Amino acid sequence: MAIDLDRPYPLSPQQIAAYRRDGFIKLKDVFNADELRRYGEEITRLTIALNTQTKPLEERSTYDRAFLQVMNLWEESDTVREFVFGKRLAGIAAALMEVDGVRLYHDQSLYKEPGGGITPAHADQYYWPVASDRTITAWVPLQAVPQDMGPLAFFAGSQHEAFGRDLEISDESEQAITANMQAHGFRVVDEPFDLGEVSFHSGWTFHRAGPNRSTRPRSVMTVIYLDRDMRLKAPDNHMQRADWERWCPGAAIDAVIDTPKNPLLFEGKVAA
């Protein structure tokens, strides 16, 4: 069966409104088993081959116990490039952000090993030198993710909360952000993912993941999208400066992030 990653995935006005309210959404049947198998095998192969982690789990930091990660796999493989450049995911991202187009920030595989630890609470946009909140991450499990495997969990509506935006992923962020979320009554959505289910979350939505207590790896591919017209801002921290150099090389402050590493992946309206 031919695979068409440009086939649209229509969204309802209610789904777009739910994303606007909660800062995230989980969508069923974005991919089928054949699609996940084809691209998942290559993503997993490259993640294992290219990751540089050599320490056993018990000797790693909290961050490094959370997952193995490899970024911009689209530059390493034509097969992964097909996946990352697919208009199905990019079209959903544009529709949810209510923008006329999206470009790539970077992709990132996240491979939580059996016995891997928690992913501490954080907001992704702490790391990104971007001028607006029109950012979104597609979190694509390459298999079903039962509860014991550590599915991504979200604090619904937290994209408007300022506390914790200056914290990188760490034991401190897990403690401080989780306590603040509880104090303000943000609802935690921590549920399994079915095969083919994909989540999308805003750059400022706080989220975390539990440990992988299963005997199987939790293999996930993520793609981060920016509004087509996103501008680079002066970095607020050393992580944002590093991201500028690595993911937006040649981009200028206050100019649209339009570099060879940030191609336009979708333009136009998505059917609803």
TrEMBL record:
The keyword Oxidoreductase applies. InterPro entries: Phytyl_CoA_dOase-like. Gene3D superfamilies: q2cbj1_9rhob like domain. Keywords: Dioxygenase, Oxidoreductase. One of its GO terms (molecular function) is dioxygenase activity. This is Phytanoyl-CoA dioxygenase family protein. The keyword Oxidoreductase applies. It comes from the Bacteria. It comes from Rhodanobacter geophilus.
